[in-house]
Amino acid sequence: MTATSVTPRVRPALIANILGQLAFGLAIMTICLPSMQEWGRIFDTDQSGVQLTFSGYVAAYGVLQLVYGPLSDRYGRRPVLLLGVSLALAGSVLGALAPNLTVLTLARVIQGAGGAAGMVVGRSLIHDWFVGSDRTRMMAYVGMAMGVCPPSATILGGYLHVNFGWQANFVLMAALSLLLLMAAWWGLPAGRPQGHARAVSEVSSASVASSGTSAWQRMLSSYKQLLRNPSFLMYMVILSCATAAFYTMLGGAPIVLKSYGVGPDGVGFYIMFGPLSYIVGNFMT
Question: Which CATH superfamily, name and number, covers 12-189+215-284?
Answer without folding.
Answer: MFS general substrate transporter like domains (1.20.1250.20)
